[in-house]
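Message: Study each token:
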Amino acid sequence: MLADALLDELVDRALAEDLAGGDLTTEATVEAEARAIGRAVARSELVVCGGEVFARVFYRVDPGVRVERALPEGENAETGSVLWIAEGRARSLLMAERTALNFAQRLSGIATAARRYVGALPPGSKTRICDTRKTTPGLRALERYAVRCGGAHNHRDSLGSAVLIKDNHIAAAGGIRAAIERARARAPHSSRIEIEVSSLAELEQALEVGAEIVMLDNFAPADVLEGVRLTRGRALVEVSGGVTLERIAELGKAGVDVISVGALTHSVAAADIALDVERLG
């Protein structure tokens, strides 16, 4: 998760979208002194994720609100399970409700999808399921945390954290050999050289120049098998591009080291979570 100051900044920006003009409905219908309890309930099976940011939204609206976590992060929750409980001024709960749920639904949706992808690997497989940089702008740290909650792994965090030569780098550099040799000459000694290839011919070129990780992009199943055979013992093999849940078992059996799945963050469905509010007293 983010450091407290950065998390507060992110939450405050999200709250400003809803509360810049106050909450006309809540202020018009609910007395200032009324108190209530709100229970966040799973409306479908999901992996719990986002408790910290869920609670932080309520605290930023009203420091007097108390939030209790009914289930731990990463837990498999059944339909009807209570995930978190917030208690305090009714107005505060209603004002924070949508923003808190937006975060929690997004993160629990990602964690749930990640758990499904990891669960699709063959028993005993050492293949890693990873996310990509196809994240919601500004929410990468939270979404990558959700991927880990689901049991999957993170790819490089930013452009400055690892060398990954893609098709446009190859084109701009003047070819695979030039791109790899320049990267090796300039990259930190602690950084592996990874390159994306789109054919078996490009794979052979990359291996000849000494790539340490090869990303097989949009390879057909038969070509993945051949790519793993050609690469074995010479580099790590990553598969990316058009990877669906149905292909995970096949890729795991093929001996792929890493499967990167952009869908974990760029097109995942939000988890179904609702806040049931009950007036106290």
